[in-house]
Amino acid sequence: MKAHMINLFRGAFYLTLALICCQLSLSKGIAGESGQSSDTIKAGAGQSNARPIADKWAVLIGIDRFKDTRIPSLDYASKDAIDFGKFLVEKGHFAKDHVLVLTNENATRDKIRDAIGGTWLPSRAAKDDLVLIFASTHGSPKELDLGGENFLVAHDSDSRNLYVTGIRFSDLAPEVKERTGCDRVVLLLDACNSGAANVGGKGLIRTSNFDISSLAGEGQIVISSSAANQRSFESKRCTNGVFTRHLITALQKQGQNTTIAEAFNYLKEQVENEVRFDRQMTQTPVMRSKWSGGELILVAIPTKPRHIEPDTALADADSGAKPDRPAIPNLAGHWIASYGAHYQIWQNGREYGWKFPNEEGKGLIADDGKTARCRWWGKNNGTDTATLEYDSNGVVVRIVGGNGVTLTRQ
Length: 410
Prior knowledge:
By secondary structure, the protein is of the alpha+beta class. It has two domains: 2-312, Rossmann fold (3-Layer(aba) Sandwich), CATH 3.40.50.1460; 333-409, no CATH class. The chain is built from seven helices and 22 strands. The protein has helices spanning 2-9, 77-90, 109-118, 162-165, 169-180, 242-250, 260-279, and strands spanning 18-22, 40-41, 56-62, 99-103, 130-136, 139-140, 151-152, 167-168, 184-189, 196-199, 202-205, 221-224, 286-289, 295-296, 333-337, 342-348, 351-356, 359-365, 371-378, 382-390, 396-401, 406-409. The strands form five sheets. An eight-stranded antiparallel beta barrel has the order 15-16-17-18-19-20-21-22. Strands 1, 3, 4, 5, 9, 12 and 13 form a seven-stranded mixed beta sheet that branches. It has a three-stranded antiparallel beta sheet with strand order 6-7-8. β10 and β11 (202-205) form a beta hairpin. α6 runs antiparallel to α7 (260-279). It is globular and about 65 Å long.
């Protein structure tokens, strides 16, 4: 059983789920599996049979490091949450103090549950608001649970006891409604599976995603990054999941008038095209709907936005950084490797990389600024996690690779 559990986890299967609960008193029929409807609910809409969205709140979860060493690390789960949060604030008309980002050590089971049903959302969201929950982390397949349940894996979850230490997906939307009174909840889920991982010389692979039809309850829409019999992939073109990358673009495709159906149709096409071209595989996002009424425009301006105190606002994803260090360490510049090669590293935010005539590499600096992961391809292919060493002024002076290679700043 233990080996079976590890094999199922080892697929680097990370997620982002999207669930829209809108139990509205519209007279239209229930939207079918496509999730489309003839009406549209805008934040500022004045339809007589649809409640305008007074305000909007978001809890974003991204976890790529886990206390349980049996759970493999992910590459870009926390970055997906951070990037989606920036999009919501900069282009999605979510107030910055209305967005809570929980990544890695800040995304324990207790902290996630507190944000959703404890002190954060229940003290802010109201009946006429919209709540968005974004989760990018491992998700357990139902085969791991005797009751056949799927669980969100928190930073401190125990892979041997997910019923106690995980968070059941089917509880998320009902808990938000029960604790806040808000019946309009959006849950976005990108479940990304890297495919195969080598452990002890054995190739381990998990080839399927969740069957989301079981998660779509009355008044809800569920969007998954791929069908239940498919894998989901990270992008070869940027440091995000393919689904999350195109989700951000899709939600603003028609500007402030982009409906969920329009966004999903564009998202589905772009994800399918990229994965087919880059990997010669099929990845088809899926949306299921059981809610009545018009479509939601996620990026629309709320009609009655409220202000909260700054000290209860957006959780800083870089809060673990030491005060004497920059929030994002600077790796850009000239470096010499311990084997003599010269590296000219470029950097864009937390992303960094290098390029040789016969090799190229990209990586991501961890939230706490202590480590940086990277992968490279070309003449040689590989991945590594390096430790960042600082001088007394908070400048990174050495990058010490787990593979024995050290880069020294010049």
